[in-house]
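Long-time lurker, finally posting.

We've been working with Protein-glutamate methylesterase/protein-glutamine glutaminase (Rhizobium etli) and I want a structural starting point before designing mutants. I don't trust myself to interpret raw outputs, so I'm hoping someone here can both generate the structure tokens and explain anything notable. Sequence follows.
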Amino acid sequence: MSAPARVLVVDDSPTMRGLITAVLSSDPEVSVIGQAGDALEAREAIKRLNPDVVTLDIEMPNMNGLDFLEKIMTLRPMPVIMVSTMTHRGAEATLAALEIGAFDCVGKPGPGEHRPFGDLAEKVKAAARTQRQFSQPAAAVAPPPSVADFRVGRKIVAIGSSTGGVEALIAVLQKFPANCPPTVITQHMPPTFTKSFAERLNRLCAPVVQEATDGARLEIGKIYLAPGGERHLQVSGGSAPCCRLVDRAPVNGHRPSVDVLFDSVAELAGRNAVGVILTGMGRDGAAGLLKMRHAGARTLGQTEKTCVVYGMPRVAHELGAVEQQLPLTAIGEEILKLTAARKEGTE
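Top reply, 14 upvotes:
Generated this for you. Predicted structure of Protein-glutamate methylesterase/protein-glutamine glutaminase:
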């Protein structure tokens, strides 16, 4: 048995520190080795204890979590899991943290929540195991091809991601031109975060990016992000495809689920689709991507070296669902190659 993941808990609330510590300590594969109430205490604790993982509150006195995270990533890079309030302001700050290099995020529990921090221990263990080199600077993103260079065909694109997906999706979608193929995305994320993430992507990318709504038509130049929460994103509609938000139990522990999206794309579009599975814990999306490939779609997976967590892409690759494994920096361009109109017509 490998050594437990060693964690430093940083939060200005003694109650929250106690709750996080209790949740993590209930897992024998996690060891809380220290606590800190602000960034100054945390800095000294990191030097003294050398933790494998830090859980970091965003809103703290003396120095907020974002400023402290930047210092960690610059001076002593390590896996950091952000702990945030489930508000619009908290979502904006968390998304900024994920772009800076935080491993993942969890929301602070609301009143009466049945399982507070239910997946935190699993995220901590994944963070401790990650092979990602946190000291590596983010690769520069090439400008998207111009409209004149890209003629869109008839295919739709479906993308699934989880842990590490914020950075990965930005890297992929910033390669898309304004006239990109219709694209649907399921990213595992808390309900209040997806709207803020869609707005952030819309500011960063050439196409229009929006949170998916029930009945929204799939259109060229638009990207639809599954809203977090109570429903799954599917596509349907035959010759006039549209988004559908459906009430179903969680699949693979997730709602929305990547498998649900990929299954619907396989049924609707068959060979006129491209499926992409990016970094993430677990196996959600692997079976659905295999279904897409069996239906004739082209399928891509992110390489282990460029994943924050090589979980979902690994399972998909082992199942035979992935036609090509590519580094993150190459995926956006490959999607455009696979969805471009042929010279003699459109596909």
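Before you design anything, note these points.
Residues 135-141 have pLDDT under 50 and may be disordered.
The first helix runs from residue 14 to 25.
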